[in-house]
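Readers of this paper often ask what the protein records in our data store actually look like. Such a record has a labelled line for the sequence and another for the backbone structure tokens. Nothing more is needed to write down the fold, since each code stands for a local backbone conformation. The remainder of this section carries one protein's record, kept here as part of the documentation.
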Amino acid sequence: MANIEHIQYINSPSARVFAALTQAEGLAEIWTKTLSVDAKLGAVNEFRFGDEAPTLMKITELENAKRIMWHCVDSEPEWVGTDVSFDLTEENGKTSVTLKHMNWRAVTEYFRSCNYNWAMFLYSLKTYCEAGEGLPYQRRAF
């Protein structure tokens, strides 16, 4: 099994970063504006990217201002059954975010593309938390 791992440092408290990763307002500005989310353990959140089938992520862990884990129940076939975690650690008002997309069956072209896009997701999260504006799918030109 293969994993994607990234870390991003954000000049913002972990509570703000956590809210951005769990609430519709933040996720719409960070990832995609077409979504339906509920920040509850066990909830299945829906994210849409253009004409693709929706990505459905079940919240399997939720620890306020510290940890979020999603389990992919439906999406691109390579995503189904994978897990995405966000671990937040705050020190002096600055938050480190460790993102892991785990349990890929193989390193493929799609895996490599997702690796790049998760880095862009973290950049979008940083700009949203620090400056109030992210870079969701609908505004990306790359």
